[in-house]
Amino acid sequence: MEVVEAKRRRSAAGVAPRRRAVRDLRRSLTTNRALVTLVAMTTVLGLLVAWRPERFPLNTLTIPMVVSTLFLRPRQLAGYITFALAVLALATTQQETFTPRLWASVATYTFIGLFVLGISLRRVQLGVGGAEGEAMLVDLRDRLQAQGEAPPLPDGWELDATVRAAGGTPFSGDFFCYSSCTEAGRLDAVLVDVSGKGVSAGTRSLQLSGALSGLLGAVPPAQILPAVNDFLIRQSWQEGFATAVHLSLDLRTGQYDVYVAGHPPPLALTADGRARRLGAGGPLLGLIGGAAYPADGGELRPGEALVLYTDGLVEVAGLDIDEGIDRLADVAAHQLERRVARRGPDVAVEPALRGVADALIAATGTPGDDRAVLVLRRA
Predict the structure, then answer these.
(1) Which of 340, 358, 364, 371 is the most buried (most CB within 10 A)?
(2) What is the chain's alpha carbon radius of gyration, rounded to the nearest angstrom?
(3) Residues 268 and 353 reside in one and the same domain
(4) What is the DSSP string of 224-261?
(5) Cα separations (Å) of 208 from 120, 227, 251, 258, 259?
(6) Domain PPM-type phosphatase spans what residues (predicted)?
C-alpha cells in the first residue's frame, strides 16, 4: 500500500506542473492574443508570397504591419516588426526573378517596417500606444472640457464662454476653471493661457487646471494666483509660464474683484456700451517667486457686462494690442446691444448671451492662435 501511495503522489506531483504550464500558456495566449494573431497572419502571408508570388505580391505583408500599430503594446510592436522584416527577407529569397517592381516593393515594405519600428521605440518611453494612447488623449480632452464647464447661475445672471484651439484641434493652451460655490452666492472664474499650443500645451493645461480646481473655493480669492504662481515655479516646466485672469463675483450684490497675471486686461461694459479696462496687473505666472497680484474691481449693475479673453483675440497682424483691445470692446458692445434689442422684454424667449462668445471669436483675433473668451452679464 505504501508503494502504491508513493506512486500516486509522484504521479500527482508530475501532473501539477503540467497543469500549471498549460494554464500559464493559455493565460499568455489570452493576454497576447493580438500578437499571436498577427504573427500567424504574417507567417501565412509570407508562405503565400514565397509559394505564389504572381498572386500574392510582397505588398500584401503590409496589411498586418499597419494593423499592428493599432493593437500591440510598444514592446510587442518592436518585436513583431523585427519578425515581420525577417519574414520579408525570407520571402524575398524565394522570388524567381528580381524585377525593378519587386525591388520597389521590398523598399516600400522595409521603409514602412522601419518607420513603425521607430514609432514603437518612441512609445516604449510612454508605455502605451495604439488604441490605448488614443484613449488617453480622448480622456485628456474630455477632462479639460469638463473642468471648463460653467456652473448654472441664479436668475438675473447670464454667462457665455468658449475656447477655440489653434488649427481646430481639440487641445488648447487656453482653458477655464470655475468654482462650485454659486449656491453660496459667489462665482469664481479663472481664464488661463498656458504657453505653447496643441497637445503639448493641452497636457500642461490639464495639470494646471487640476491644481486650480483644488484651489478654487478652498482658499480666499486673493490667494489663488499667488498659489498658482508658486505651483508653476515648483514644476520646472521648460516652458513654465502662463497668464491668467481671475474673476471673483458676489452674485447677490454684483460686487466683483479681478486679479490679473500677465494677461490682457478684462473689460467692463456699461449698459450704454462704454468700456473700461480692469486689473492693476501682476507678473506672468511661474517666473517670479512671491509675486503679488493686486485686485481691481467694482460693482456690476443691471445691463452691464464683463469680458474676459486671451491674447488670441487682440493680437492681430498690423494692429497694436491696444487697438486690438479697443476693437474687441467695440464688437462686444455691439453684439450685446443687438442681442438685447432683438430679445425684447420677454427674458424667457432666449438668453441674450447665447452664441455671443462664438460671435466674438469669429469677428476678432486670428485662427493661428488659441482663443478663449467669457462674457458675463447682469440682466
Answers:
(1) 371
(2) 31
(3) yes
(4) HHHHHHHHHHHHT-TT--EEEEEEEEETTT-EEEEEEE
(5) 29, 11, 26, 20, 17
(6) 154-378
**Dist. CA 172–CA 189, nearest whole Å:** 18
Grid coordinates representing 19? 497543469
Q: Is residue 134 part of a domain?
A: no
Same domain, 219 and 350: yes
Q: What are the tens digits of pLDDT across the range 138-158?
A: 666 666 666 668 888 888 999
The answer on 222 and 119 residing in a single domain is no
Q: Is residue 251 exposed (0-12), middle (13-18) or buried (19+ Cβ within 10 Å)?
A: buried
| Bridging pattern class, strands 275-277 and 242-250 | unpaired
Distance CA 119, CA 198 (A): 20
Residue 275: closest CA among 338, 319, 328, 339: 328
Pair 177, 311 in one domain:
yes
Contact at 8 Å (CB) between 309 and 277? no
HEC string of 185-208 equals CEEEEEEEEECCCHHHHHHHHHHH
CB 61 within 8 A of CB 102: no
Q: Which amino acid is at 146?
A: A
Residue 178 · residue 151 · CB < 8 Å? yes
Residues spanned by the domain of 343? 152-378
**Which grid cell is 25?**
500558456
**Distance of alpha carbon 94 from its chain centroid, rounded?**
49
Quickly tell me which residue has 455671443 as its cell.
Answer: 356
How far is residue 317's CA from residue 308's CA, in Å, rounded to a whole number?
21
Q: Cα–Cα distance between 177 and 147 in angstroms, integer? A: 6
- Residue 147 in any domain: the answer is no
- Are residue 73 and residue 160 in the same domain, yes or no? no
What's this model's pTM, rounded to 2 decimal places? 0.69
Are 160 and 216 within one domain?
A: yes
Whether the CA torsion 305, 311, 312, 317 is positive or negative: it is positive
